[in-house]
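Per your request, structure below.
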């Protein structure tokens, strides 16, 4: 389905007004010497200052031998310096390899080797983990004055630059590694045009303006934090309120101090509400006008609770790294009471298909395919996987199962790779999770399949609120009231906290490993 012609034309006008490269964005707003681009720990950085720092860092990188087509790895957590570094690397037509500092040494080294990074930069002033990686790699410190300090690795003289596309918009801007649900990292190549599309269009649909103050705690090392939150804010001339890592206490302070736009994953909102309830405080956000959840499924109980606390609609959306990331989102002017992920973004086409690749009838579930300016260039050094994911006509197979109502609203049913087949029946974890999350003592849950002889059974991992007294059996009884027998968990495992990536997304591949062990091992 393609959006209405008027909206389709509008996204083209948005992109036509933007420069060719992401690194040129500060120049859009640098003419006003007082316009603030970034806020970090009580200090403001203007767009003019960001442009100056970008240029200074670009000169330094060029001085150590960074060339167009080189990969420059950023081992980082959110701070003003990492935004300036992104801009500097992209201004040289090099590729930013965004990596979260909280990855293990094995993961960091694997990505460094696969990407063939010429140099590695570490945001050590905001991250002990980045400092540990820098020291392990014997990187040298570099003082950036008010921007903090970073460390810089020795240059890999064996690194080979990639070819540079003639059209600047089609050059790769970022190489982002994603493990999806498998745990095996894949390097996703995103172009300047991919990122500009999401930054410009999704920002427009959220109504971002220069007066907005956008909460920037989602890791810029992940595509949601990079494209939608960081670049979406800067393209609109708004101020990005940077936070190096999430805590409900910090989120509460930011809301009370003038944040106008809040984007997060559902787990962030669940933990904030839990924190407020535990401490007997109310949701206080005098300037907040827009609240959005993405990155993982949103259930109706959490949506209801956030809206009751904030007095605002909790908007929803859907995407994946390979689509830069957004594919659908609810519209600011069209609030929804359900948990639809909204309508497809203007300029994109989507299909729901069956196992034979045939379109399914409206309202029926099918595998979601997307085509448009958000679709990645491909997987780095893996043309076979790229060909298996994007067909000859440009359709990206998301691997997710969705249905689309007659009004265009899309609902995510589940992932094909997460599908549990229990006694011949299909069980989508998102449905079971929504039921468990409705329990008043559950913060969040995650459901996986466990192979048993000749069958597969449902296993639920649950994180409870502090002081909760619900037992696994009580949770099973609760779920049984709303689920068909074949959908009910065979086991509920209560954990102090579910394993999660830095962006808050639950790491289900770890839970699948735990599900194979006895319950007490979890």
């Amino acid at each position: 389905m393609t959006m209405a012609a008027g909206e389709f034309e509008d996204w083209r006008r948005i992109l036509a007004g933007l420069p060719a490269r992401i690194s040129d964005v500060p120049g859009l707003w640098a003419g006003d010497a007082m316009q603030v681009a970034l806020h970090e720990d009580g200090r403001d950085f203007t767009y003019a200052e960001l442009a100056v720092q970008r240029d200074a860092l670009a000169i330094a990188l060029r001085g150590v031998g960074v060339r167009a087509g080189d990969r420059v790895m950023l081992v980082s957590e959110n701070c003003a310096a990492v935004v300036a570094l992104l801009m500097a690397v992209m201004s040289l037509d090099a590729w930013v390899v965004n990596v979260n500092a909280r990855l293990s040494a094995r993961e960091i080294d694997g990505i460094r080797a696969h990407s063939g990074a010429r140099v590695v930069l570490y945001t050590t002033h905001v991250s002990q983990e980045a400092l540990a990686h820098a020291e392990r790699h014997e990187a040298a410190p570099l003082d950036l004055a008010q921007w903090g300090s970073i460390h810089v690795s020795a240059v890999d003289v064996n690194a080979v630059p990639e070819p540079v596309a003639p059209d600047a918009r089609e050059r790769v801007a970022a190489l982002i590694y994603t493990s999806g649900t498998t745990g095996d990292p894949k390097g996703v190549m995103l172009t300047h045009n991919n990122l500009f599309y999401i930054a410009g269009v999704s920002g427009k649909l959220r109504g971002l303006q220069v007066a907005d103050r956008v909460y920037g705690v989602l890791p810029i090392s992940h595509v949601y934090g990079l494209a939608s939150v960081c670049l979406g804010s800067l393209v609109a001339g708004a101020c990005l309120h940077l936070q190096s890592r999430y805590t409900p206490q910090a989120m509460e302070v930011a809301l009370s101090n003038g944040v106008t736009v809040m984007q997060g994953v559902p787990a962030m909102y669940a933990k904030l509400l839990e924190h407020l309830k535990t401490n007997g405080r109310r949701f206080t956000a005098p300037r907040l006008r827009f609240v959005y959840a993405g990155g993982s499924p949103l259930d109706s109980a959490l949506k209801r609770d956030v809206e009751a606390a904030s007095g605002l609609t909790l908007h929803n959306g859907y995407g994946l790294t390979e689509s830069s990331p957004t594919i659908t989102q609810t519209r600011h002017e069209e609030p929804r009471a359900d948990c639809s992920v909204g309508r497809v973004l203007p300029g994109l086409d989507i299909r729901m298909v069956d196992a034979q690749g045939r379109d399914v009838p409206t309202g029926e579930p099918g595998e979601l395919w997307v085509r448009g300016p958000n679709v990645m260039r491909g997987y780095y050094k893996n043309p076979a996987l790229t060909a298996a994911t994007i067909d000859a006509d440009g359709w990206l197979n998301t691997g997710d199962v969705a249905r689309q109502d007659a009004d265009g609203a899309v609902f995510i049913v589940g992932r094909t790779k997460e599908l549990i087949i229990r006694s011949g029946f299909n069980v989508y974890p998102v449905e079971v999770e929504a039921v468990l999350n409705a329990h008043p003592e559950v913060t969040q849950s995650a459901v996986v399949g466990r192979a048993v002889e000749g069958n597969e059974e449902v296993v639920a991992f649950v994180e409870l609120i502090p002081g909760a007294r619900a037992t696994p059996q009580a949770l099973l009884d609760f779920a049984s009231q709303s689920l068909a027998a074949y959908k009910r968990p065979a086991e509920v495992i209560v954990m102090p906290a579910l394993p999660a990536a830095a962006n808050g997304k639950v790491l289900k591949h770890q839970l699948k490993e735990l599900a194979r062990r006895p319950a007490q091992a979890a």
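The mean pLDDT is 93.

Regards,
D.
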